[in-house]
Amino acid sequence: MKPDRPLHPATRADAANAPALELAGVHKRFGRTEIIRGIDLAIAAGERHAIIGPNGAGKSTLFNLISGRFGVSAGRILLSGQDITNRKPYQINRLGLARSFQITNIFHRLTVFENLRCAALWSLGHRYAFWKNLNKLKDAEDRAEDLLRRVGLKRRRDTVGGLLTYAEQRALEIGITIAGGASVILLDEPTAGMSRAESRHAVELIREVTQGRTLVMVEHDMSVVFGLADLISVVVYGQVIATGTPTEIRANAAVKEAYLGQHVEAA
Amino acid sequence: MELRELHFRPLNFGRWLIWGSTALLFALLPVAFEKGFALTLMSQMGVMIIFALSYNMLLGQNGMLSFGHAVYSGLGAFFAIHAMNWIASGKLAWPISLLPVIGGLAGAFFGVIFGYLTTRRAGTPFAMITLGIGEMMYAASLMFPGFFGGEGGITGNRTAGPPLFGIPSLTFGPQMQVYLLIAVWCFACMVAMFALTQTPLGRIANAVRDNPERAEFIGYNTQRVRWLMLILSSFFAGIAGALTAINFEIVGSEFFHAARSGGVLLAAFMGGIGFFFGPIIGAVVFTFFAVALSEFTKAWQFYLGAFFVLLVMFAPGGLSSLLLMNLRVMKFRRFARLRDPYVGVLLTAMVLALGTILLIELTYHVTLDTGLGPVTRLFGIPMDTSTPGPWVLATFVLVSGAVSFDYYRRRFGERWSEIQIEIEDWIRDNPT
Amino acid sequence: MFEATLSQALYGVSYGLLLFMLAAGLTLIFSMMGVLNFAHASFYMLGAYFAYQLSVWLGYWAALIVAPALLFVIGVLVERFGLRRVHKWGHVPELLFTFGLSYIIVELVQVIWGRAAVPYRVPEELDGPVAWLQRFGVTFPEYRMFMMVVAVGMLAAIWLVLTRTRTGLVIQAALTHPDQVEALGHNVPRVFMLVFGGGSALAGLAGVIGGNAFVTEPAMAGTVGAIVFVVIVVGGMGSLAGAFIAALLIGLLENFGKASDYTGLKLLGSLGLHVTPDAALYPVLKLTMAQVAPVLPYLLLVVILIVRPKGLLGTRED
């Protein structure tokens, strides 16, 4: 299955039509081991795109490359037509891409409210201000309160992050990710370790907070994937072996052999 | 048994207590302690408070452990003393009372330069680099006697220049006036540094401390954050240095010595780096050790080091954390049950400490004061170190103190855990 | 001319090897346990002081064996009863614990041996120039040669233990993946204890051979300690090879610097530029290399920070 949009470097004329996120010939080597062995991918704006595949396939590495945690060994990554290959994480974030982490990565000594407020500060333009009183910044406070409500942590507003339950921390994780108003959201196994009920709740949350944005998600839970995704890419041994709609992927023989197995049920 | 919840949060209570009583304290202390030594002590405490608070901007707020903070206070001091001399010779028209501004700007200037270099790394490499820069400044200061005064340092005269507000008696000659100057600057700096913790940069610095990687992913250049915090911190360190220059009227290369950097680290940590007012307590305690205790015993550095290590091992949150933990127990109205265990623990701790002190003092006397003969006076009692008597006594006190302390410590620990569990249960059953 | 240079170079190399002995122990402890042992340099000092005392009672050669053994025991005790307790609070309290410990050790040393330098001397058998080098006109003390031999021998032994024995393999694994190694059934806390003890013994040995070549006094821990930190940062955290290069570089730099009376003025003079005493940079330019020598390692640190912050062979971002 080929991605249904041809990859081309964005020119000014069709910048508006440029994919929200585009990977061209991306390779990543650690020492002598090649983890990502040539990935081409284009994700349209507003699309919900899931990336699935067996463990060790390179999915998290892919996220790390896109978000700037590691540099690529070869290839290019474009965000809405702009080249973000090998840029620093904060530069990429300022251009409109935010990511969550598989292992919860919050500010464990700050309260839930502070976590969310900090995550919103840069995008609100407050930057490195040391002359403004934080508690008087209404826009930051409103944004944080809104996020609190949306991720369902209102009653934990003043609890220190490190004391939250696992599911609450995952919700906070998502809250931090979307706080800056990024247009492209990367979620790395958002429902990892959750029970069925918690997963369902998380899916609703994700669907609600990514309205109108581009979502790229790494997931293992097939019910989550099939429930949320518009398109799915299957990554095996550092390469995309198939991209398509959930129905197409379910029926794809190569995918079944490599990953899903012969007995996958429709969730 | 019903629990009534008192409506205050210990942290806020502590804050208001400190702010209000500090200002009051600063004003009233000299009334209570007129003696010259007390004024000297309080003056140095005031300066140390500014220095330690500036240091905690790096350590407690931003997670940066620096072993070379004395560089910035030292440079502030040198620029201040030279400015003082320029004021005296008429080359510069600037009030002595505002010399700390010059010191602060000097500190900040070098914070920009050295800060850029040192903040290129974080964590442990940063700590080692600051040590290196500190050593470099110390060695360099010995190479340029023109600016740094060589072995003798640079002296100045704080009574130079026009008197404060034109009032002829306000020349900063008397220690009382110097103390009041330091008190005003100390209070102003405390307010300023506290205000900084309530700004976007201050909060992001906290975030960088907790999770530098995630801070990058929310759009912040962590290196820039650390650099800016260092510049601000070195500004206040420079102010502390300038006040020291005014207080002692002499500045020398020892201002850059690793001992000064180590001292402010000890002060901040002992007070507790997790709370804003922690370093204030730590600065007071440290100055007490360094200035007051050193008058009584040569072993003060050993005691300071031992106290520090004990805190690191058993109370890494510092004295402020101990205070707040107890306030918390008080808030939940269970402190009464700790009274007896506390008495037991504190009394036996004193016996243990006494035994240790006796032994240490005897040893110090034998090795370092041999010229003074074998007899030394401890707590007013003469002791002949060449006879076994004092040694046996000291050992006996030490051992009995250790044994009884261990017993009471364990009982205290049990009672403390009981209470903590009860509190946690109460919180769980009464979520609000 | 060449002979003098070679002699200077050998001095530099011997000092560099001593620095590397210290840096290697520190790097091993840091890489494995994540704690920067601030007391490492004070263990070096203890090694020198113990060696002095032991050589007074039992002779130098006994001291060479016993002093490092004592430091091993001390290291094990410090880890077992001190570091392990603090470990749960995190890396900063661990570092501060070792910092406080170094403070106390310096005080104790002064209480026991006094504040002045102690006369820890080179043993008579090794006092004198190396004969076969003397024939070439190169003056180099036998004792320094002995230092180099001991340093190289000790480091070779460590390398062998790490790469050729089972314990060494476990240590290497625990360097990067202590949890996995523990899950495999190895007693990782015991490995930590042994590594800390071993590192301390190495520092003690460096003190035994270095204390009498240089001066044995309470301040020795501070001066050497700072330079060892510079070696590690310049070489790159966690890289033994980098530390080796950096140690030799700094050793040579300091020695050639100390022996030279070259000044910035002479440099400019050779380029045809003459600077008058009232020029702004004159105080800097008239300094001889010998006067600047103490600062050279730190200048190198600054240069590395500007040009290559990760260090020469740095791999890990700490």
Question: What does it look like?
Answer:
The complex is a heterotrimer of chains A (267), B (432) and C (318). Chain A has 267 residues and is of the alpha/beta class. Chain A has a single domain (45-69, 88-260), classed as 3-Layer(aba) Sandwich (Rossmann fold). Helix content of chain A is 33%, strand content 22%. Chain A has nine helices and ten strands. Chain A has helices spanning 59-67, 89-94, 112-121, 138-151, 166-179, 196-209, 222-228, 246-251, 253-260, and strands at 21-30, 33-43, 48-52, 74-79, 82-83, 97-99, 184-188, 214-218, 231-236, 239-244. In chain A, the strands form two sheets. Chain A has a six-stranded mixed beta sheet, with helices on both faces. In chain A, strand 9 and strand 10 (239-244) form a beta hairpin. In chain A, helix 3 (112-121) packs across helix 4 and helix 5 packs parallel to helix 6 (196-209). The longest helix of chain A is centred in the middle third of the chain and has 14 residues, at 138-151. Chain A starts with 20 loop residues before the first strand and ends in a 7-residue tail after the last helix. In chain A, 46% of the residues are buried. By secondary structure, chain B is mainly alpha-helical. Chain B folds into two domains: 10-314, ABC transporter involved in vitamin B12 uptake, BtuC; 334-429. Chain B has helices at 10-32, 36-62, 70-88, 99-118, 123-143, 145-148, 175-197, 200-210, 212-217, 222-248, 258-271, 278-296, 300-314, 318-331, 336-368, 388-429; strands at 154-155, 250-251, 375-378, 381-384. The longest helix of chain B is centred in the C-terminal third of the chain and has 42 residues, at 388-429. The relative contact order of chain B is 0.13. Mean pLDDT of chain B is 87; it is low at 5-10. Chain C has 318 residues and is mainly alpha-helical. Chain C has a single domain (2-260), classed as Orthogonal Bundle (ABC transporter involved in vitamin B12 uptake, BtuC), CATH 1.10.3470. In chain C, 73% of the residues lie in helices and 0% in strands. Chain C has 15 helices and no strands. Chain C has helices at 2-33, 40-57, 60-87, 91-113, 131-135, 142-164, 166-176, 178-183, 188-211, 220-235, 240-259, 264-270, 282-285, 289-292, 296-307. The N and C termini of chain C lie far apart (43 Å). Chains in contact: A-B, B-C.
